[in-house]
Amino acid sequence: MTTPDAPQNPPAAPGGWAPPGAPPFGTPSGAAPASSGAYAPPAGYAAPQGFGMPAAPAAPSRPPAPSRHGSGLGLTALVLALVATLGATVGGAIAGFNIGLGAGKGLAYLPMDGSWDWSILTPVRDWVLLGEVSFWFGTVLGVWALVQGIVATVSRRGRGLGIAAIVVAAIGPIVFGGVVQGVLMSGLAAGTGIGG
């Protein structure tokens, strides 16, 4: 049921019926009628913010394409890490045992007052030099392998091999220190005659 005050039909636009695409009250003053029959906003009119065509959806992201360079960078990093760890450990172990063997007697006769006599290492100075060279050889190659492994991992040029190189280069100093200390103690025990 309708109220008596409300009009039944809205009033017609002046000038007759207008198609849905045309302005409701004719052409605005000063504006030329659109030649295609489509509605054109009046001059100086700007649409309110937030209105308009929705933005096109963003293209789905794709994983980066595999590198064409192959896995040579990661493989090189892994080989460097293995050479650094094994080479330094073997060289340090040989040097450590011979240092302990040659300096064992001098250490056994060293007074317990806390003083240290560097002349104890004189007979084994060549082995001490080999131990130092092994340490620095492993350090330089290990750092190189670590950096190259990180680059290979980030640039996806042998990512798995690069991660393996990072792990081997990181545990290399631990392996070196543990093995050299154990072998040095064995050499000292054999050099002093404590073991039997």
TrEMBL record:
Keywords: Membrane, Transmembrane, Transmembrane helix
UniProt feature, compositional bias: Low complexity: 27-37
Transmembrane segments: 72-97, 133-154, 161-184
Lineage: superkingdom: Bacteria
Stretches the record annotates as Disordered: 1-37
Name this protein carries in UniProt: Yip1 domain-containing protein
